[in-house]
Amino acid sequence: MSDFSEIVKAIEGGATPDELAGLRIPDTFRAAYLHEDDMKRFEGMESDDKDPRVTYRVGQIETPQLAPDEVLIANMASSINYNAIWSAIFEPIPSFLFLWGA
Question: Which of 20, 52, 58, 66 could form a disulfide with 88 if both were Cys (CB 3.0 to 4.6 A apart)?
Answer without folding.
Answer: 52
